[in-house]
Protein 1
Amino acid sequence: MAAPDLTTFVGATRLKNPLICGAGEHVMLEDGLRAGLNAGAGAVIVKSINETTAGKEQLQRTDYTLLNAIWREQPWDFSPPEGASLLCRSGLAQQSFEDWLDLVVRMDGEAQAQDAYAIASLIPADINHGLNLARRIEEAGVRILEVNIGAPHGEEAIKGAILLERDAARVRKITAAFRKAVKIPIWIKLTGQSSAIDALATSARAGGADAVTIMGRLMGFLPDIETQAPMLGTRGAIGGPWALPLTCHWIAKAREKMGPGAPIIATNGARTGLDIARFMLAGACAVQMTSAIFTGGFPVITECLREFTDYLIDKKMNARDLIGVAADRITAYEAQELRPDHWKTFLPDAGI
């Protein structure tokens, strides 16, 4: 077959491919943003900012550790072992808002020349301040705004530094306020720390979000088995490939509630090009990759796109053909075939 079409749509926004380089320390400065674009990402999201000095200071207190599948620390050599997880504290962009906005504008111009996007990201602390910043972002000519109201560190950070919202009514109200403030596309990023992420997604869409991103990383706590102290000295946000089925579950649930055309962006769990396919099969129209690129370097983008393309070639499909295929085949437990005593097949040998 001819080369597959990688194009996807997030609402009305066309992306040349579904891989979005998510916001993080690796895309806070110009060189990293340019590297993400040059590696082929359909979009890069510039490291998030808000109006507080507390959010900036939080990054000066940060720490990171890479863990293998049995929770042993690994070297930070940009070659993480298969199955590795990232445990970390984080904070917000270090530039002044004016310098940060100038960077976003310049990089979005470069991105446009590559048929891509550089996306502004706000993690509000105070909604009214956030709305003012959103207006300035639109006035500067930035084409897309992510509003992250699901940052995992929200309740651990310095009080007033960042917002973490779990209430569906509040999600709708916040989204509606941003929708009223600006006309550019708004992507609302939601927390993973909720038992009703699908309800949060529905509320964000009802408030006017052009897309919802599911789901932010979870908070974790891990004792160091040697020192018996907390790793990193505290709690931290944790993400790894183990999170992919959890994210897929909530994407499929949100798709079921909002309908097959729902613009859902996946994040938390993707490490490979096949993971991009898995997320799209669950109902996502695009995929943010953050920890994989942060810990593995920007070549991860190129390699994931190559593997994703090879998968589409093998299946004789285009990227958009994948969206929701698996989610729409989910059946209830009671619809499964009766298999009397099948469970016994899985018992361990009880012999001594």
Protein 2
Amino acid sequence: MELRKLAELLDAQLNGPGDVDIRGAAGLQDAADGDITFLSDEKYAGAVEQTCASAVIIGRTMKVPDIPSLVVKNPRYAFAQVLAILHAKPYVPGGISGQAFIGKDSLIAPDATIHPFAVISAGARIGKRTIIFSGAFIGEGSVVGDDCVVHSNVSIREGVAIGNRVIIHAGTVIGSDGFGFVTEGGVHHKIPQVGGVLIEDDVELGANCAIDRAALGSTVIKRGTKMDNMVHVAHNVSIGEHCLIAGQVGVAGSASLGSYVVIGGQAGVGDHVTVGDRVMIGGGSGITQDMPSGSVVAGYYAMPLRDWLKVQAVLPKLPELRKRISQLERKIACVEVQPEKE
């Protein structure tokens, strides 16, 4: 489309001719004639002079380049919008494949798309414009809302409720039994997991995630939260709104995360731990105690338990101990330089 049309859609200020034809989008170094690119940091401004792009998206405080530009508040977000605009595919209902299995009393919206070899169990409900890809399984009585995408080989077991505009990538399992056992007489006895899972609107789950059902009640993932691949959410966990959780994170049973929590890859949150709003957890960290809202935390490594407990007791005192050691070193230095008395 023409650059002026993109400017209108992005509510951007247009610098230069508006009749430039935009056919694609790419990074500064990869862009070719007909592409639009973006500059999110002024330290890369020199690359704009070398780019072959036909136009660039820049921030409001940046220097206007020699090529046509769109000026916006957040160039990275605007570029994401451009990608969505240029690559948007209008939804065309595909109907229900004759090779799909549709259970008794299931309710499927007329404009939903069910691909071959998908299984929709008895009493399940599928919302408007939702796509269920091949090999996906929807359990008895589960609900998938409007405009959802359930990719191949996803398993959504019985008693799961999923909101609108949820994206679930291949291989993810929702509603598997929580890890609950009680030991009696030297034998581990299973605790029946009879709860459910509630996933609210606009959640995205990466590939091969595991979201366990609750023992009682529900495991909850609130609206807007995004998860990377291979995240494990245990039974009765509650995850707040608009969280970002990177790959291979584990959240243990009955933990509670606030809203806008960010967790780096391979971090772990212990059972029954409460993490407040807007907490940032570094990759590989182990969270074993409650984190107040706004905390930024990182670090963890294994050692004998007794030693680890001692280290944890000392760690908060290290700044004060360092200060005292420095004071003692200065005093010792002063004593050493004083001349001996006759």
